[in-house]
Amino acid sequence: MTLYVNLAELLGTRIENGFYRPGDRLPSVRALSLEHGVSLSTVQQAYRLLEDNGLALPRPKSGYFVPADRKTPALPAIGRPAQRPVEISQWDQVLELARAAPSPDVVQLGRGMPDVTSPTLRPLTQALGRISRRSDMPGLYYDNIHGRRCLREQVARLLLDSGTNIDSDDLVITTGAQEALAICIRSVCQPGDIVAVDSPSFHGAMQALKGLGMKALEIPTDPLTGISLDALELALEQWPIKAIQLTPSCNNPLGYIMPEDRKRALLTLAQRFDVAIIEDDVYGDLAYTYPRPRTIKSFDEDGRVLLCSSFSKTLAPGLRVGWVAPGRYLDRALHMKYISTGSTATQPQLAISDFLKAGHYEPHMRRMRGQYQRSRDLMTGWVTRYFPEGTRVSRPQGGFMLWIELPEDFDSLRLNRALQGQGVQIAVGSIFSASGKYRNCLRMNFAAKPTAQIEDAVRKVGAATALLMQRTDPA
Amino acid sequence: MTLYVNLAELLGTRIENGFYRPGDRLPSVRALSLEHGVSLSTVQQAYRLLEDNGLALPRPKSGYFVPADRKTPALPAIGRPAQRPVEISQWDQVLELARAAPSPDVVQLGRGMPDVTSPTLRPLTQALGRISRRSDMPGLYYDNIHGRRCLREQVARLLLDSGTNIDSDDLVITTGAQEALAICIRSVCQPGDIVAVDSPSFHGAMQALKGLGMKALEIPTDPLTGISLDALELALEQWPIKAIQLTPSCNNPLGYIMPEDRKRALLTLAQRFDVAIIEDDVYGDLAYTYPRPRTIKSFDEDGRVLLCSSFSKTLAPGLRVGWVAPGRYLDRALHMKYISTGSTATQPQLAISDFLKAGHYEPHMRRMRGQYQRSRDLMTGWVTRYFPEGTRVSRPQGGFMLWIELPEDFDSLRLNRALQGQGVQIAVGSIFSASGKYRNCLRMNFAAKPTAQIEDAVRKVGAATALLMQRTDPA
């Protein structure tokens, strides 16, 4: 990426995160040129880009300002989950989401689906076709338990982008990141153990805890910087926690990227209390800024971080290819992989390996990062326009999910029911909590290319929300 | 299949199972004609077929006899496993097997690999290619948790061949039968529970018990008729058994088909003691006789049988497509599927569904059944020829595995080590026992089309066996 785009992204993130507020004066061209060691014209290009995106406004002879009428909706509040380990509930609501088959009649804002219609994915389907036509039919044979070496080598190369240095022999290919998460939980914990999680937290990981008999301790989480280290420290002092499970980069559902110093501090805490960290990085490569954020795993020195990821959010989920770097738990992870599915499907591994090797991954990522960032702005705008005043909205720094918080007595389960028959579906907030918190929240997906149909769907969700709020309003 | 082939198979099975011994006179043409309600010429055709296969010898004016020089090696003895629940061991040996990647330099007699080179599989790879080329790229999308409806409907149709009547909505598609087994175990049992298993028993199921914290109680198993019902009844009286896990049709590794009345009796036992049955049917469609044997599930009336199967042995294992019919445990099985892998890869499901729908499955099965049966005879002959006198051999009635038993002090682990460097690999017997029994046994795969290279591999195994036996021989 060129220098001016980099700079524009940096400034844009600061504006979006509220570092500069509406009406604020932005740094002078000269100051930025000195600060970042770039030419004046680079800074000017960056400002023009910000201007195009509605983030900066030039005033003659005064420099650049954040537009005063720029509405940034307030951020969701920091959650106040139960201060004790709980058995995980909400399976029935997750099941409803998991059962929903893709349907052309329903705008599924609730699902975790990326956009797979980009032409930059074409080489992947071509690779699948090519492997099908090979006379030695490699896709029909069992793979071994570790996963294809060619793919592991490509994944190891990819991981370098996040500062993560892993030998390909320390990787295990999995059937999506869900299998990686379940393997990790079972590699580290026994039934009855307590696992600390960010809150809100990915429902798939929490349901894995539930299914395997563990308890979750939800830790308050800041919508811009991630899990509260103070609260986590208190919890580690108070409870016999076995592992910390979280999504620190492009969090699902909040979209934040935990700053690097906080990732390091988290690892130090884990070392002090000798607990494992299960790091879910499925959205990490979809950070809007480049280079992508580092993983916690990249700072890990004693193998206590188990890094889980997949190609489900970056390439295509239907292929079910993920991986885990289980650190010191490799032997146990291999056993868990063996009993879970024996081995991973061969053909998609070969196709993805070909795709990566031919250099198609980076251009695809570049395109998707740009598309998702633009869609985030659009979707945030739609929510600001169509949802009732006071609606709080996350400010994702990567990925394709928006988290929306409504007044405390709002019930997103009722909202979802109200939307049935209107051809729209959302993810209810309560599935992101072990104890059914966040009923007043919902998650919406903005991966698909923006269309009038999607805008209309968001308008419907906003209208149905307003209607429900009027009904519960005592006035 | 025509009448005479049917009749020949029936008689052939009786000869192979020792009902008629070498030198015995076989029933007269007239008697068989009356018994089976077929014409005399049909019986004569059947006898000619048996003659071609070396199973019957005509003597002028005296009728047909079993050739007196026909060598049928003795059957393996009924195992005498530990009479108490045990924690499962042997993971390191299973890992060695699971780690072995396909290699052109090694004849892998130890693996569970079917022959995937048959031209009758061509339509399957064509379907994979066709789906890759579709512009709507269905293979890239998440499937839902249940699996593709089109595939479930085809599987439900297929199940009718085994007398099993299952609604497609009561099926869940899985990532191979291994995931189905792990899902079932977790749907029925809690850590610490006791599961009764046939013995020898499939290592994947037992490792799943181990990984999930259950104990196995190995039940003596007859090499021709399956799990001992008397021993099972005693065990059910004595221990709080939660489930019975077994492979009753074309057992792995013994190859027997449990007779129908014994399947019914097993179910009655399970009802009486109110335990679940986890029935592994992955080899069931590969029975040499037609129609294929019924499943225990086909007699199930109260949903206590969980039927697991896959296309890994019948079509191709690299696709990782299996299924489970979990009966009354459907809700819990869906939860376990969700946390295990979320959903199954989409493209292989669609390709297999197309393959089945177009009617390619039955011709493929017919061909493979014939090939495997012929290879069984060849392999049995090679073992008889190349292994030391007194070697006991199973008489598979389906599938592509031979189980070989050597004197009690023989050590197949040492054999496998001796074979390293000779380009041959076998499966050591101890992985088929929870407690490491059957070290004196080994399993060999006869799926691949017989070649001089394979015969040479068997010869090497026989020679290495003889050498080891001489060394341990006190004389």
UniProtKB/TrEMBL annotation, chains A, B:
Residues making up the signal peptide according to the UniProt record: none
SMART domains documented for this protein: HTH_GNTR (SM00345)
Keywords: Aminotransferase, DNA-binding, Pyridoxal phosphate, Transcription, Transcription regulation, Transferase
HTH gntR-type domain residues: 1-69
One Pfam family of this chain: Aminotran_1_2
UniProt xrefs under CDD domains: AAT_like, WHTH_GntR
InterPro entries: Aminotransferase_I/II_large (IPR004839), HTH_trans_reg/aminotransferase (IPR051446), PyrdxlP-dep_Trfase (IPR015424), PyrdxlP-dep_Trfase_major (IPR015421), PyrdxlP-dep_Trfase_small (IPR015422), Tscrpt_reg_HTH_GntR (IPR000524), WH-like_DNA-bd_sf (IPR036388), WH_DNA-bd_sf (IPR036390)
Superkingdom field: Bacteria
UniProt-recorded Gene Ontology molecular function terms: DNA binding; DNA-binding transcription factor activity; pyridoxal phosphate binding; transaminase activity
Family classification: In the C-terminal section; belongs to the class-I pyridoxal-phosphate-dependent aminotransferase family.
Listed name of the protein: HTH-type transcriptional regulator NorG
Lineage: Bacteria, Pseudomonadati, Pseudomonadota, Gammaproteobacteria, Pseudomonadales
